[in-house]
Amino acid sequence: MIKFKNILFLFFIFTSSLLPAKGITIDRVDPPYWWTGMKNHHLQLMVHGNRIAETTPVVNYPGVKLEKIIHTQSSNYLFLNLIIDETTKPGTLTINFIKEKKQIVSMPYELKQRDQSLGNHEGFDASDVIYLLMPDRFANGDTTNDDVTGMLEKADRTNPNGRHGGDIKGIENHLDYLTGLGATAVWINPLLENNMPAYSYHGYAMTDFYKVDPRFGSNSDYKNLIRKAHQKGLKVIQDMVFNHCGTNYFWKGDLPTKDWYNQWPEFTRSNYRGGVVTDPHASKSDEHKMVAGWFDTSMADLNQDNELVANYLIQNSIWWIESTGLDGIRQDTYPYPYKDFMAKWMQRILEEYPHFNVVGEAWLSYPVSVAYWMENDRNFDGYHSYLTNVFDFPLMYAISKAFNEPEGWSTGTAELYEIISQDFVYSHPENLVLFADNHDGDRFFSKMGEDLKRFKLAMAFLMTTRGIPQIYYGTEILMTGLEHNGHGDIRKDFPGGWPGDTLNAFVAEGRTKEQNEAFNYLKTLMNWRKNKKVIHTGKLTHYIPQDGVYVYFRYNNTKSVMVLLNNTEEDKTIDCSRFSENLSGYTKGRTVIKQRIIDNLNTITVPAKSPLIIELEK
Ligand code: CA
Q: Rounded to whole angstroms, how far apart are CA atoms 291 and 268?
């Protein structure tokens, strides 16, 4: 038997060397299809296939012009610049690939009619509350896709850093849970293919920008999820990553161009100092390392200075918006890609969808650094980002400290006051996305020392100050976890999301008394907030924290909401004469959570370590 195998092996070696080289093929085109009637008429196709560059493509379709054919160092790629003019009708065009006057291979390419029913691309704003969830850890609605043939990593729920089997079906099954809680938008951590051998669950090492990971579902499952979410009044925000891709992307070992990735003589990490990009005194070498260094060994640093890479990424996001009707994008690691490219990308999105939103993750500690990335006309170097929204990292740090600290000149709620008072650096403070925690840091309840009173103070603040609140899945049921225990600790499975789970926190009976108290508090607040224009668009006036209480008002011409945050361990009775400029004309009020009537606005008592939110009445 062994002998026979050896003979077969030798036969294979011998014959394969005599076989002609593999024929010319096409195995992939990106984007997989496009549309007529787009505002921008340009489309660049990346055609990939064995020796395809030896051919000359020919397009014959009314209204479509093959403007340019681009060859690269690899004979396995052709880039085709098409112009689709305004009169072009939807349909399937054929691209013929010719060599020595013979047609070698041909490829159908569909130009679809734009589908207006998918969504209005109106984006999100301060009328929304965003619920962030990690799809692998939220709910497993389909156990048959936990392991998929061809995908390197199998499900292993015992491994905190492994895949746990959560999926799109799991999200779909709990849309009513999300809307019941009061969420109006859901930001889903990346759903695209991550065919990496380990740590693939978090989704940030994508190996196909055009395909949902089969362990989460299919592209059409994703599209259906968005459709169903829209029917329930829930917007969907897609998590995108342009800084890097997984090293197992299909172009592995055969990059379209040598500079497709930023190359280094040996593996070089980014210095992760996002601030150097906006530092007027930064050295060129620090800045270069920041943007061209790799995020990780498994995450190749894309070179967006290469126009082919840039087009690939820009078209990709337009493809997702147009094909699914999604409502917004969360863009990862915003200062890490080349910033001129990011501005070009944003311009192109806004050209196509003028009311669309993108929130950028500029993970920086100071308002002035974050403000640089939100579109403005005041940057010292004249940079225009065109970015509509940024996360308010400085306020997240302040929230994390304020309610754990004793009140003082610069501690306690003074932390919040100081950050909010710097809003003048932002072109649109109302477009900041506010959060107490997310998938990259300590769970908020843990940060609060698992103290429900501090937790409620923070949530009251988050839901009533300026900006767009975002909560992290499980925050509403007081999930705990610390980053230094590993990312698995802050990304635990939502109890009840898996068949056979002994606890089901999606329903009241499955939650502890304390969890229900937190859940109901947030639910009441978020549902109240839903229709309160005064919170969405009203002005903000805040008063210097005094005697341990931070007081502010959200108001417009007809409504006013007064918020008092008592950050001390004793009940406080406040003399309200200091707030007369905001109280003038109002005689009473009603508290939001308990619906208690306040009939005296001269003095108000706020219980120890508690918030009080009052809708004022005339
Ligand atoms: Ca599954």
A: 11
